Fold:
Amino acid sequence: MKKQIIVSGFQPTGNFHVGNYLGAIKNLVDLQNSGKYEMYIFIADLHALTGNKKPEELREQIMKNAAEFISAGIDPKKTTLFVQSDIQEHAELAWIFNCVTPISELYRMTQFKDKSVRQEKNINTGLLTYPVLQAADILLYHGNTVPVGQDQVQHVELTRDVAKWFNNKFPSSSAGKSEFFEEPKALLTAVPKVMSLLEPEKKMSKSLGEGHVIELGDEPEIIEKKLKRAVTATEGGVKAPGVENLLLLLKNFADEKVYNEFVKVEKAGNIRYGDLKMELAKVISNYFADFRAKRKDLLANPKKLQAILTAGAKKAKPVAEKTMKEVRKMIGLK
Structure:
């Protein structure tokens, strides 16, 4: 039986934090290790150009995120791991998809509206056409399974629409297929929504500031310092977003027995939040101890890291070239 194809990309906007890990990366590692999928994971540096990073910062972050993927469990022997811009076909297919996508559909995308607010001094065309490049990222490898959270389902739906618009405009005669691009499906999994340490009504994000996130590479003393400042509540037994967030993290990183004990004393109203923070700092530090060591080793060996990314691009390139060769023929370009 042919494996389903998973394609997933991450912008190199910052170091990975526990929200990224629990919300996406851990799930990707599990999917990879299941052996049921053909996996393509890429660092979306072309997407990052819509932001405000300086060139030297972008280059450095690409390497950091590559090291972090591998350190978190993405195995280059099982998963094709590469940098988006190393495969020029992403941009070429995106332009072709631009030419079949109604602009009105792009103005409806919530991410464009959100990002326009966040970077109001840099509302560029790339922010608007960003979802079309996402569609190209997926369909270039004939991805048919896209693991996403609920907030990304709209992008998968647009990718399905793009595939449909292309197939309708350019009917395929390739290998007896009536539709060249399969419409991918969103793979929704129950993932925890981790909130900011300092503003627990907001999703954990590096854009809020260093103190709002726990990075996977943070040293134990940094984790402890950040958690000491985390918002909780004035007293136990009161439903507070900050407390719920810390307990959520404890549930995912601590033993069940430890978690249940803290839930019990919190409900009883006699929890000591200092104890909760100290325990959480300890279990998160221990959980990512191997990650920190692997990340440090990889970043100290940039040639080794670059060789892994180059090998990944060499695996992805023939697949992308084959798709584009057929696409060009279908649309009348060669």
Q: What stands out?
A: The domain at 4-193+301-331 is CATH 3.40.50.620 (Rossmann fold). The chain has two domains: 4-193+301-331, 206-292.
